[in-house]
Amino acid sequence: MLKQYTYYILAFACLLLAGCDRIAEDERLIYEPIVMEDDQEDIPEEGKPEQTKRVVLLEDFTGQRCTNCPEATDVIEQLQEVCGSALVAVGIHGGPLAFAGNARTVGLKIDIGDEYYTHWNLEYQPVGLVNRHAPLSYSEWIDAVKEELAKPAPLRLKGTAVLEGNAIAINIDAQGTNGTVDGKLQVWLLEDGIQALQLMPDGTANQAYIHNHVLRTAVNGTWGEDFSIKEGETVQRTMTLNLEPKWNREQLSIVAFVYNDQGVQQAAKTKVEIIE
């Protein structure tokens, strides 16, 4: 049976400032559902895998000393309301405005955050990569996410993560759905609900700010591992990560994504299940 899909039209107004963007209260993300009558699911060819929806990865390069980074977080939250699980956001604390912490104040900066920031030749914060295309100010994220969601996905990804004792057992399942994909499989650990310092747009220091989807570590190396999958093929990878004392086991998630020179091809996020 042919199906009709509901799409969101994302309307966005912005003001570009030197090195940092601000979004006025009356210029927030708005959307309305419409039915695209001629956008119908094709009947799959005999023997061809069922197609899958694309999940978009948004890498938010942020910092606790970045006064406009909470504005970028607001945009991410609005996008998540519209896109749901079709958007995976990751807060990467690295670069000149990230904070490593001290004896009195929690810091979220990590070494690979700096490495990623330098690798992508980033020059300001907040700034983001949408499916690892050109760096964008957060006033441009909405249109970029919308564009990526419209692209077909060449593979399906699904992950599971189980914490037992102090070890997280991770399983990633992939199925090729369209052509052959060669690239890298990257797996990250994220943590939500971290209460820590954040400088705010008005210049104040908020010690009770809640940081979500914070990148804690790369499970399988800074740049992941070689990965290849053909249409109709199934590939499974397993790995283990030891829990660190500073991580809140109740707030952990695993993000997996496949990327190559053409960008991120598919992503998936799953919460870490705890076995007592």
Q: How is the biggest beta sheet arranged?
A: 5 strands, antiparallel
Q: Tell me the name of the CATH homologous superfamily.
A: Immunoglobulins
Taken together, the total number of domains comes to 1
CATH topology: Immunoglobulin-like
Task: Name the overall outline.
Answer: globular
CATH class: Mainly Beta
Keywords:
single chain, 276 residues, mainly beta, Immunoglobulin-like, five-stranded antiparallel β-sheet, four-stranded mixed β-sheet, 3 helices, 20 strands, 44% strand, globular
Summarize the structure.
With 276 residues, the chain is mainly β. The protein contains 3 helices and 20 strands. Helix content is 12%, strand content 44%.
Structure description:
This protein has 276 residues and is mainly beta. It has one domain: Sandwich (Immunoglobulin-like). It is 12% helix and 44% strand. It has 3 helices and 20 strands. The strands form 7 sheets. Strands 10, 15, 16, 18 and 19 form a 5-stranded antiparallel β-sheet that branches. The protein has a 4-stranded mixed β-sheet with strand order 17-9-8-20, with no helix packed on it. Helix 1 links the parallel strand 5 and strand 6. The longest helix is centred in the N-terminal third of the chain and has 15 residues. It is globular, with a radius of gyration of 19 Å.
